[in-house]
Amino acid sequence: MEQPNKNIKLVSNKNSRVILPNILTLVGVCIGLSSIKFAFDGNFKLSIIAVIVAGIIDGLDGRIARLIKGTSKVGKELDSLTDVISFGVAPAFIMYFWALSEIGRLGWLVSLIYVVCVALRLARFNVTSEEESSWKDNFFEGIPSPAGGILVLMPLIYSYSEIQFFNLNNNILVPILFITISILLISKIPTYSFKKIVVPRSTTIFLLFVVILYFGLLLVYTFNTLIISGVVYLLIIPISATHYLMINKKNKTKNENIDHHEDVL
Predict the structure, then answer these.
(1) I need a surface site. Which of 6, 236, 242, 259 has the fewest CB within 10 A?
(2) CB atoms near residue 131 (< 10 Å)
């Protein structure tokens, strides 16, 4: 009886391996576009959930592509275009239908500024991501577009949460929040990318527990969890910036010492 060939691979052609990540990306853009339809129909809860699901898919498609070695330039450009729709255009329309339309042309102007900043942020990311790999890959310049898309939805999410400590004036808060997030998107403030986290083998089970716990809370207490997550993320931004400056200073000192020794020799 002939033995099966152990060298057979399920997928050996890279053109085949890029299909799955690209399909996920396209599913994400469909969900992002659907969030606009939900908001237009007045179903803002579903529109929020659609943006969150699009964000989860956005976090998975790139990792799956790298895992199965199915990355491609087409996938990279497609991912950026998807981000503009799902985390730029969609949140802008959702918030315009919910609150910004009440302040007239100023509301539309604020929406346009936000979408343009998302596009600029992604264009800069595409350029900088082609540079050589280094410790800086652990940080983004400015906040990423998925985070920006969810942060601008915070007033809407807050209105559905059980955490009601303040009565918000959305006609003032929403435009200010849009401009603030727009600035953070195109800024060069270092923020954690969470792409190359090294987890010790001994703590893997605890990390899995935390992830499962978080998604459990997200399913049961969706809007409360999102509000708390948004506040925590905003508080982490100055921490990440400080951490970046410390590492950068340490590396500069190390390089200066190396150059000094070379000059002496």
Answers:
(1) 6
(2) 9
The closest alpha carbon to 119, from 71, 151, 167, 87, belongs to 87
- Which of 186, 207, 184 shows the shortest CA–CA distance to 197? 207
Token readout for 251 is 């590396």
Question: What backbone phi and psi angles, to 5 degrees, belong to 193?
Answer: -95, -25
DSSP letter at 140 equals: E
Q: Output the CA–CA distances (angstroms, integers) from residue 16 to 6, 7, 13, 59, 173, in the order listed.
A: 21, 18, 5, 21, 47
Report the C-alpha gap between 145 and 123 in whole angstroms: 11
Give residue-wise pLDDT tens across range 26-50: 998 999 999 999 999 999 999 999 9
- What span, in angstroms and rounded, lies between the C-alpha atoms of 51 and 47? 6
Say whether 130 sits in a helix, a strand or coil: coil
**CATH code of the domain made up of 15-264:** 1.20.120.1760
What's this model's pTM, rounded to 2 decimal places?
Answer: 0.84
Residue spans per domain, the chain = 15-264
Instruction: Tell me the three state secondary structure of residue 139.
Output: strand
